[in-house]
């Protein structure tokens, strides 16, 4: 393998049903109207707001922050190699592909253990041994991340988003 494709780096074919189920563990963290731009293969959400900006939900830390002031600005950055290395962890994805770890539809990468439980955080530059990365269903990883961070445990399931922007 010499190059990664967009399909190797992100999940962008999210149905409304998947969106609600996959984002449900983050009730209380993600509020208001949002729509998915896409997810990274590590489950980071890139969410569009009706106001026009894009937010990123970091599933390693549980932090939600503005990624770009507009969708156009966001798409320009997504196409930059540095952005892909930082936010899509493209170098690590390349190593995982070389190790034979390739997620299928509805799947993503998961770190074992989660960074909140002592595992490395590649988004902070921590080295990750591919042996400690598994492929799992997105809904399972989102739940593990939220639970590991103590997020959304008192919120009602399905409350974070209405599925449209």
> What are the segments in which pLDDT stays under 50 over at least 5 consecutive residues?
155-165
Distance between the termini: 37 Å
Strand content: 15-25%
Major sheet summary line: 5 strands, antiparallel
What is the overall pLDDT average? 92
Helix content class: 25-40%
Number of domains: 1
Neighbour order of strands in the largest sheet:
1-2-3-4-5
Shape: globular
Give the topology string: H per helix, E per strand. Answer: HEHEEEEHHHEEH
Radius of gyration from the alpha-carbon trace, in angstroms: 15 Å
Strand tally is: 7
Structural class: alpha+beta
Per DSSP, the total helix count is 6
List keywords for this structure.
29% helix, disordered C terminus, 6 helices, 165 residues
Overview of the structural elements:
The protein has 165 residues and is of the alpha+beta class. It has one domain. The chain is 29% helix and 20% strand. It is built from six helices and seven strands. The chain has helices at 6-9, 16-23, 71-78, 81-87, 90-98, 138-149; strands at 10-11, 35-40, 45-48, 54-58, 63-68, 107-111, 133-137. Strands 1-2-3-4-5 form a five-stranded antiparallel β-sheet. Strands 6-7 form a two-stranded antiparallel sheet. Helix 2 runs parallel beside helix 6. The longest helix has 12 residues, at 138-149. It is globular. Residues 155-165 have low confidence and may be disordered.
């Amino acid at each position: 393998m010499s190059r990664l494709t967009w399909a190797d780096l992100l999940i962008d074919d999210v149905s409304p049903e998947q969106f609600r189920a996959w984002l449900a563990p983050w009730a209380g963290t993600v509020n208001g109207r949002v729509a998915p731009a896409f997810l990274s293969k590590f489950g980071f959400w890139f969410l569009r707001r009706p106001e026009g900006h894009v937010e990123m939900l970091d599933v390693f830390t549980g932090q939600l922050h503005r990624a770009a002031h507009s969708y156009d600005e966001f798409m320009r950055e997504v196409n930059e190699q540095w952005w892909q290395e930082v936010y899509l962890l493209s170098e690590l994805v390349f190593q995982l592909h070389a190790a034979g770890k390739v997620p299928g539809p509805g799947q993503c990468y998961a770190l074992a253990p989660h960074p909140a439980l002592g595992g490395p955080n590649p988004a902070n530059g921590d080295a990750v041994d591919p042996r400690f990365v598994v492929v799992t269903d997105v809904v399972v990883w989102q739940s593990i991340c939220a639970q590991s961070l103590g997020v959304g445990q008192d919120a009602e399931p399905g409350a974070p988003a209405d599925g449209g922007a």
